[in-house]
Amino acid sequence: MTNLNYHDSGRQRKKNEISKRRRIGEVDVLVVGVRRLQGGSGGVGGKRLSISASVFTTAGTIIDSGTVITRLPATAYSALRTAFRQGMSKYPMGKPLSILDTCYDLSSYNSFSIPKISISFSGGVEVEIALAGILYVNSPSQVCLAFAGNNNDSNVGILGNVQQKTLQVVYDSANARVGFATGGCS
């Protein structure tokens, strides 16, 4: 049985926690309260990244299946990129690909290991990102971290579909909750 973990953007929000409905153009979206990014067990030293929760509350974060690459506030992306690069330091860097600036040339490797990444949401929900959601593979010589940074911390963060593709994402609009479960599309 698949476990469904809900992030309750709910009715009992703490002050400074952005988790609300917002109208963007003609669409109502639920803005979720991302608290932090962290390295999963065994990845990036298994340590939480030193990112203030306020970085994610400045503009909020949306979940958008129409956006491919997750966009993070500049401060959060910088910390993630630094930790990921440290975890991948034994592999040669590759050429950047569009907005993806952390790429590796893995063409000489039959196997490789990468740091785990997870996203913590308010309410204690932690979502570990699957391998397919961490890397974007253009070619063996251009394997990139599948996250990008916004220009600044005031731009809305977006959890894109590359990170969602192995998750079931359930929207409970009536109760203002978003749920995550493993075993989505693979």
TrEMBL record:
- Biological process annotations from GO: proteolysis
- Please name the Gene3D superfamilies in this protein's record: Acid Proteases (2.40.70.10)
| InterPro entries for this protein | Aspartic_peptidase_A1, PEPTIDASE_A1, Peptidase_aspartic_dom_sf, TAXi_C
Peptidase A1 domain: residues covered: 1-181
Give the molecular function GO annotations: aspartic-type endopeptidase activity
Q: Which family does it belong to?
A: Belongs to the peptidase A1 family.
Listed PANTHER family: ASPARTYL PROTEASE AED1, ASPARTYL PROTEASES
Q: What is this protein called?
A: Peptidase A1 domain-containing protein
